[in-house]
Every structure is written in structure tokens, then in C-alpha cells.
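Q: what sequence does this backbone want?
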């Protein structure tokens, strides 16, 4: 018996898992490497950040997910480099893992456009740690506001600023508005639905720029009806622990959340290849690295163009289709066959605005309102890994729709003695 081909997959996100599953019955040995032990359903992270869901509802252990694939082994480690000449990946533990075929699906990280110091004051949403950190900031602000006697400081505590008008920002702002205006007001004695101020800020002229302008207008109207104050054409010029400067005007706040930009992982640096402006690896139309037909880059890490010549968006369907295609490329090459270049099948863009509003772009067909929200909810539940997670999330979404309840309002870690006040700042008009 000959030696079985060795396939190394870096990253257990949507793309990495799709590739792993596509190789389930293949006569290859797969090594799946990730620096975390769980697969995360990132589109619902904002629900964890706003206490609607628990982290375990949207995550599952990688080993359990692939336990029925006997040709897969899982390594908990971090890839730090790729030696293309030697044919192995380098790990943070000092080990190396040899490959015959390599699929890199390491995703993206936050981008603060050169102002990395903002990260400590305005966390983004990419991991469970990010989501629980945001949840902690939001809930602590509400708790402190309940007993704060100083009017200016209380106003700052009850001001929440979401930076970025894409789907994540819109969904986050809407969820915070519902949490602050409806879900918690009945549990507090001095916080009423009208006390909190939720702002959604974007430097561009409209929300949801990846959607048609008509749907952007619908989203703007829907989120304003939730009580969110939208600022467009308003770049953020500074972020500190007690305020955000919007177009040069300081807005006192203790809770800023970043949803304005992402940057790809350093995979292109490992491979020594070119990148686009977002740091994504420039690859061929078959998803392979130029000059290395046995290395594929997929998902948010890859700069891949669609049929219209525009870069494909960083969404789950793109990563899943690319993961499957990369696996098919490997199987075809092993069998001595040729396969066509990758072609993305677009099934639509979805974004939700609160508990019963959403917008969906199916191309020629646009959906809004409750019907769009129902389809959004159904799609997200079905995309979750594991029947338990689907049931838990489905029931939570249904219960929250009926009652506005947020059952995951737990503040973990040591409670600080105080929150630093906003000083010498005047609220924006």
C-alpha cells in the first residue's frame, strides 16, 4: 500500500470545515489545525454580545464536529509560517507538520486603519472573547448608570456608540437598542426606555453599502424606528476610554464598539505573495497560490473576484463554497483529472435590524420586514453546526421575539469598583 496524500487545513471556520467534510470519504490523511478548540458561528456573535445567546449556543468543539471522520486528526496550535520548499507548516509550539496539499482558511482580524490603540477602547466582534468583552462593557454600563447620581456621567454611561454601518454594525446597534430600551428597562428602577442613547456612525453616505440603495434606505428607516441615532458621512477621528470623537466632536461614552473594518490574517506573508489593500492573498481563479498548485487560500484570507470582476465578500457562503472547491481540486489532481475554475454561486445578502425587521437582496428580488426577518432567522439556525445548537438558538430567537427577554445577562470576572467618568467634555448637539 502506498503512502496516502497528506492534506493540511489551517483554520476550522466555515471554509476549513467545508473542505474537511468534502474530504470525508477520500483516501487522504487530513490534519486540521486551529488555535482554538471550537468552531464559531460568527454571524450570531452580536447576539452573544447583547446577551440574547450564550457562547455555547453558537460554538461547538472541533473534535466533536469531525469525530466521525476517521481520516482527520485535529491539532490545537497556531500556525506561524509556511515553508513551501520543505513542504511543511510551522507551529507556535515549535513543531512542523508536513503536507502534500495545503488549504489556508485563517479568516480575518479587526482593522483600525492604522489606529491600533483604539482597540482597547472599542473592541470588535470576531471571537467569543470579543463578544463576552462587549457584553461585559454594555451590562456594566447599565449597572453603573442605575446608581449614578451625576447627570453627565450617567448620560455617558447610557450612551452606546457603534462604529461601522455594515451588516455587523447595523445588527449590533439594533440589538443594543432593544436591550437598552426594552429588555432591561423593566428590571432596573431608574433606567427607562428613554434614558439610553444608541448611535450608529459611518464615514460613508449610506448604511449597508453592499446592498442596493433602496434596501439601505429601508434599513436606515427601520433602525431609526428602534431609537438608534444614525450619523452618516461622519468619520471617527479619535477613540478614548471616556469618549469618541465623531467628525471632530467629542461624544462622552464608556461603550464604543468597532464594526468598521477587517484585515486578513498574515497568510500572504507566510507564503511570500502579493496582497490587496485589505491584506488578502492574491490567488489564481482556481484558488491556488501562483507557482504553487498544491496550496490553496480561501475565505476571508483570499482576494478572489466574482463573475462581475469585483472582490467576493467576506461571508460564510463564499468560504464554504471555496472550501468545497479546494477539496475537489485536490481530489481531481490525485485522480489525474482537471477541474474548472472556482465560480461563486450567490444566493443573496442578508442583514437583520432588530427582532422583526431585516433586508434581503436576492438580486432581482428584494425582501424587507417580518418576512425577511423570518428567512434570516431560518437561514442562520440551519447554518449552525449541531442539532442542539439549532434547537437552542431557534428557541431563544422565538422566545426573545415574544418577550424581549435576554437570558444571558451574566457579568463574569471581577466587578470593578468604579467606571472612570467622562470629564471636561461636552456632549454633541
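A:
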Amino acid at each position: 500500500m502506498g503512502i496516502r496524500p497528506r492534506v493540511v487545513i489551517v483554520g476550522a471556520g466555515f471554509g476549513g470545515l467545508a473542505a474537511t467534510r468534502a474530504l470525508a470519504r477520500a483516501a487522504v490523511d487530513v490534519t486540521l489545525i486551529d488555535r482554538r478548540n471550537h468552531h464559531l458561528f460568527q454571524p450570531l456573535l452580536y447576539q452573544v454580545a447583547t446577551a440574547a445567546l450564550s457562547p455555547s449556543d453558537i460554538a461547538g468543539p472541533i473534535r466533536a464536529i469531525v469525530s466521525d471522520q476517521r481520516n482527520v486528526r485535529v491539532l490545537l496550535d497556531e500556525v506561524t509560517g509556511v515553508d513551501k520548499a520543505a513542504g511543511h507548516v510551522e507551529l507556535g509550539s515549535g513543531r512542523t507538520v508536513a503536507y502534500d496539499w495545503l488549504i489556508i482558511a485563517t479568516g480575518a482580524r479587526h482593522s483600525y486603519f492604522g489606529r491600533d490603540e483604539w482597540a482597547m477602547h472599542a473592541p470588535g466582534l470576531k471571537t467569543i472573547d470579543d463578544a463576552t468583552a462587549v457584553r461585559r462593557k454594555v451590562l456594566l454600563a447599565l449597572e453603573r448608570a442605575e446608581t449614578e447620581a451625576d447627570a453627565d456621567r450617567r448620560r455617558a454611561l447610557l450612551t452606546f456608540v457603534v462604529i461601522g454601518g455594515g451588516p455587523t454594525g447595523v445588527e449590533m446597534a439594533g440589538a443594543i437598542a432593544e436591550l437598552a430600551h426594552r429588555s432591561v428597562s423593566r428590571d432596573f428602577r431608574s433606567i427607562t426606555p428613554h434614558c439610553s442613547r444608541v448611535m450608529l456612525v459611518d464615514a460613508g453616505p449610506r448604511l449597508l453599502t453592499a446592498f442596493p440603495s433602496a434596501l439601505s434606505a429601508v434599513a436606515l428607516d427601520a433602525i431609526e424606528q428602534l431609537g438608534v441615532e444614525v450619523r452618516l458621512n461622519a468619520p471617527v477621528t479619535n477613540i478614548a476610554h471616556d469618549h469618541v470623537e465623531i467628525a471632530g466632536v467629542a461624544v462622552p461614552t464608556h461603550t464604543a464598539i468597532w464594526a468598521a473594518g477587517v484585515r486578513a490574517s498574515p497568510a500572504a506573508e507566510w507564503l511570500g505573495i502579493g496582497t490587496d489593500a485589505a491584506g488578502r492573498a492574491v490567488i489564481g481563479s482556481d484558488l491556488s497560490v501562483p507557482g504553487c498548485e498544491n496550496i490553496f487560500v480561501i475565505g476571508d484570507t483570499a482576494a478572489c473576484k466574482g463573475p462581475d470582476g469585483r472582490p467576493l465578500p467576506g461571508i460564510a457562503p463564499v468560504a464554504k463554497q471555496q472550501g468545497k472547491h479546494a477539496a475537489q481540486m485536490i481530489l481531481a489532481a490525485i485522480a489525474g483529472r482537471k477541474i474548472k475554475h472556482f465560480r461563486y454561486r450567490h444566493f443573496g445578502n442578508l442583514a437583520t435590524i432588530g427582532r422583526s425587521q431585516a433586508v434581503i437582496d436576492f438580486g432581482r428580488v428584494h425582501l424587507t420586514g417580518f418576512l425577511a426577518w423570518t428567512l434570516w432567522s431560518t437561514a442562520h439556525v440551519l447554518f449552525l453546526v449541531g442539532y442542539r445548537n439549532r434547537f437552542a438558538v431557534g428557541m431563544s430567537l422565538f422566545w426573545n421575539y415574544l418577550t424581549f427577554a435576554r437570558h444571558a445577562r451574566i457579568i463574569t470576572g471581577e466587578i470593578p469598583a468604579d467606571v472612570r467618568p467622562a470629564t471636561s467634555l461636552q456632549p454633541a448637539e
